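ok so i was messing around last nite and threw this chain in just to see what happens. nothing serious, just curious
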Amino acid sequence: MQQLLKDFETITWRKEHKFYKVMLQCTLFGEISVVCCWGQIDGGLGGRKIITCNTPEEVKSTINGIIKRRKYRGYIMNGETK
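result:
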């Protein structure tokens, strides 16, 4: 699981004046949490969700689901063009 943390980079999406960011963090019990943060780029309001995963496969499945939803909702991953 530690290797997964080392290999993963933060993923950030943008849509007009909104952002969505996914990061990984290790828990005290050796699990990996997928941390999702979102909000307005110039605003102070936003939210956060933490999804705890037990296996690397569960982490990858969770991240792939998030990527699919962000694309469906019109977000553009940083570094991509339309």
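not much to say yet. The chain has one domain: 2-77.
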